[in-house]
Amino acid sequence: MRPDPSPAVRALLSRLPVFDAHADTIGRAVDLGEDLGSRTESGHLDLVRGREGGLGAFVVVAWVDPELFAADPRARADAMFDAAHDLACRHPTRFRLVGNAAELDRARADGCISGILGIEGGHPLEGRLDRLHEFFERGLRVLTLVWNNHLPWVRSCRDGAGADIPPGLSEFGREVVSEMNQLGIVVDLSHAAEQSFHDALEQSAHPVIASHSGCRALHDHPRNLTDAQLRALADRGGVVGIVFHPGFLDAGARAEEARVRATPAWRALDALPPAERFLAGQALMRRDASPLPAARLVDHILHAIDVAGIDHVGLGSDFDGIDRGPEWLEDASCYGTLAELLHRRGLSLPDLEKVLGGNMERVFREVTSIGSDAFHLTPRNRPEPVGV
Fold first, then answer.
1. pLDDT on residue 371
2. 179-230 residue pLDDT tens
3. How far apart are CA 217 and CA 263, in angstroms?
4. 141 close to 185: Cβ distance less than 8 angstroms
5. What share of the chain in percent tops pLDDT 90?
6. CA 314 from chain center: how many Å?
7. CA–CA separation, 199 vs 183, rounded Å?
8. Dihedrals φ, ψ of 150, to 5°?
9. What pLDDT, on a 0 to 100 scale, did the predictor assign at position 41?
10. Looking at the predicted structure, is the pLDDT value of residue 319 above 50?
């Protein structure tokens, strides 16, 4: 039976402490025209369900599909940033884009959920540092250096890199990290190859994150971090956001998802447009795949705490970028269930607050303070509000 949050956990959640380091939700607004300010019938996250779950801030991720948007990845990222700005304008009393700690504090004081603009994969930079500056001026504050597609300047954790791909970061890749440090953009190392991970840690003058990863010791998946990586991340003050994707958390769940993807029902989804196909796939996976107990996600969080320390673990759900979450963690209204499970497994309320969001917030505050008030979302970068 799904556990209800205790009164103490409910009181904690009422302060909106959750900082989710990775959610692909804005794609639903771009491709399906959904108003994420309302409770939606599809997907994982909207402002209504987020508030119910105690969500105070999340990284609004612009993931640019490298196959569908290979011709102009920058334009796709711009369209997703436009949608995020539009969401803030449509719901100014409930959602605000923030670029630094001062803006985060003001949003919290006003009772708004904060959105922090991110890009997943460096391909929209098109190999140019000036693109990084342009995205920064539009609000970019988190950049996942690489997705599953290798880039000429950074290797992904996936197989298939050719001889022209560096084993880690190229010299240009190091320049990207240094420029991010100068601007006040958080370096995100999820999806990075191990050498890319360590090269970026070496290059960065500030703490970095791995926004949505699991623990390799519990499931030997290339998207997960080894204990050595977890310790190295902690040694530099960084934070890992534990992902909710069952296929990254458990070998049996990964096999179960592969079984569903081999069925005729799944293959029939190929006839649908990409966004509709993804939503239909979510529904099919939830219906046909055996659920992964939420305790498995708790296992990964507690292992990461054991290895990296309580100050270096957070959450990175990957909501709306995954087919399903673990059992009881179907959408953003369910962070409270996870909080209760962690509390029952021994996390004190102060430690729980760190994991739910305090640790990720610390890195965001430190990195974005570089620019102080000189670098933030100025009115000229914000469309005028169009309603409430």
1. 55
2. 999 999 999 999 999 999 999 999 999 999 999 999 999 999 999 999 999 9
3. 30
4. yes
5. 94
6. 11
7. 19
8. -65, 150
9. 83
10. yes
- Do 77 and 375 meet the contact criterion of CB atoms below 8 Å apart? no
First-residue to last-residue Cα distance in the chain: 38
**Token pair in block for residue 194:** 């191990």
Total tally of structural domains belonging to the chain: 1
What is the span of the domain harbouring residue 307? Answer: 7-250+292-381
Question: Looking at this protein, which amino acid is placed at residue 315?
Answer: L
**Which helix or strand (DSSP H or E) is residue 241 part of?**
strand 239-242
- Could you give the CA distance from residue 305 to residue 312 in angstroms, rounded to a whole number? 7
User: Per-residue pLDDT averaged across 245-258, rounded?
Assistant: 98
Q: β-strands 55-63, 95-97: how paired?
A: unpaired
Confirm whether 283 is domain-assigned. Answer: no
Confirm if 334 and 52 have CB atoms less than 8 A apart. Answer: no
Q: Which residues pair with 313 in a beta bridge?
A: 240
- CATH code of 172's domain: 3.20.20.140
**Helix ranges (DSSP H) in the chain:** 7-13, 26-32, 47-52, 73-90, 101-109, 129-137, 171-183, 194-203, 227-235, 246-249, 251-261, 264-267, 274-288, 294-308, 335-344, 349-353, 359-368
Separation between Cα atoms, residue 41 and residue 178, nearest integer Å? 42
Q: Render pLDDT for 108-133 as a digit per residue (tens, 0 to 9).
A: 999 999 999 999 999 999 999 999 99
With a cut of 70, say whether residue 376 has pLDDT above it.
no
The reply to whether 159 falls in a domain is yes
Contact 365, 103 (CB under 8 A): no
Long-range contacts made by residues 262-268, C-beta under 8 angstroms, separation at least 24?
263/288
Residue 381 has pLDDT above 80, yes or no: no
> Which residues on adjacent β-strands are paired with residue 60?
23, 117
104 within some domain: yes
Q: Going by DSSP bridges, is the β-strand pair 140-144/209-213 parallel, antiparallel, or unpaired?
A: unpaired
Average pLDDT over residues 91-101: 97
What are the pLDDT digits (tens) for 225-249? 999 999 999 999 999 999 999 999 9
DSSP state of 348: -
AA identity, residue 273: P
Would you say residue 325 lies in a domain? yes
- What is the token pair recorded at 100? 């630094």
